[in-house]
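ARCHIVE CARD
Drawer: 12
Card no.: 0347
Subject: one protein chain, sequence and derived structure
Cross-reference: see card 0346
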Amino acid sequence: MPGFVAFKNFTAPDGERVSIIEFESEETHDAQRDHPEHRVAQKLGREKFYAEFKIQVCSEVRQYRSAAK
């Protein structure tokens, strides 16, 4: 999908999972969110895989990076 940057998935010892999906911009995120194939996948997930879920859409305020010397 144009504008897709990264996908990371983490699972806690109790089985709770979080996924971080990163896009270049809000516009590329919105295009993916509204894509017809993605809408079908969302519906399937709600119906067959997840009893409950929470989605948070966040904006990066700042980013720091450090490299070893």
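Annotation on reverse: Helices lie at 26-34, 36-49. The mean pLDDT is 93.
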